[in-house]
Write a structure and sequence with these properties.
By secondary structure, this protein is α+β, with helices and mostly antiparallel strands. Helix content is 25%, strand content 36%. Strands 1, 2, 4, 7, 9, 10, 11, 12 and 13 form a 9-stranded antiparallel β-sheet that branches. Strands 6-5-3-8 form a 4-stranded antiparallel β-sheet, with no helix packed on it. Helix 1 packs antiparallel against helix 2. The radius of gyration is 28 Å and the shape is elongated.
């Protein structure tokens, strides 16, 4: 069967907020880790807001502790103590929310993998939420869907070994196994060959020479 390989782990990277690009911390072809920052968007306003929120949270916490002490000494009412405690909680939660907002300005890789084309985004560009910045692919494990002729379908089982050969020169070979056999045959359309059975095989890319999108015979 001739079919393309696909990575078991790949993503298209998009920002979760709008902003202007002020830093590119990687380039295409770089290997990155999950959580690593790829781009930094302008975050001056968000950083200032977080600093203010953290300062307010510290101030309100000190007040809450002071009024708790005064209440324990009998110098303040429970109502007044609770009001300051509530304000401290609200300030703390606001600081947490502002930190999350700031973090959106740092576009991070969600997976381990290799960066694809990143030339379309330049310093100074304004990007919007959902814009595709690049793709990140982990080619360490690949899979392919093979269409097996109906005449051979009964011979195919989960766990069977599969050997692949790339169409490149020189060819790259690999060994994997079948992980899924479709529970039904594809219904042929008029003028098409006899029906086929869809089979999925997974291959560990031990040499690192195989890539997503590469056609192989298996």
């Amino acid at each position: 069967a001739i079919s393309p390989l696909e990575s078991t782990t790949n993503v298209t990277l998009s920002p979760e907020t709008d902003g202007r690009v002020i830093k590119k911390l990687v380039k295409e072809g770089d290997r990155v880790q999950a959580g690593q920052v790829i781009l930094v968007l302008d975050n001056t306003q968000q950083s200032a807001q977080l600093d203010a929120s953290k300062a307010q949270a510290r101030f309100d916490m000190i007040n809450a502790e002071r009024y708790q002490f005064l209440y324990e000494q009998g110098a303040e009412s429970a109502k007044r103590r609770d009001a300051y405690a509530t304000k401290a909680i609200q300030s703390r939660d606001q600081a947490i929310a502002d930190k999350a907002t700031l973090n959106y300005k740092f576009v991070r890789s969600p997976i381990n993998g290799v960066i694809g084309d990143l030339d379309t985004v330049k310093i100074g560009d304004y990007v919007k939420t959902g814009d595709i910045i690049t793709g990140i692919v982990d080619n360490s494990t690949l899979w392919t869907l093979m269409e097996i002729p109906a005449s051979q379908g009964s011979q195919v089982k989960v766990g069977q070994s599969v050997r692949l050969v790339s169409q490149s020169t020189p060819p790259v070979t690999g060994e994997g196994e079948i992980t899924f056999v479709s529970p039904y045959y594809a219904i042929p359309q008029a003028g098409n060959p006899p029906n086929t059975l869809m089979v999925k095989a997974v291959f560990p890319n031990l040499t690192g020479q195989l890539k997503t999108g590469q056609y192989v015979a298996s």
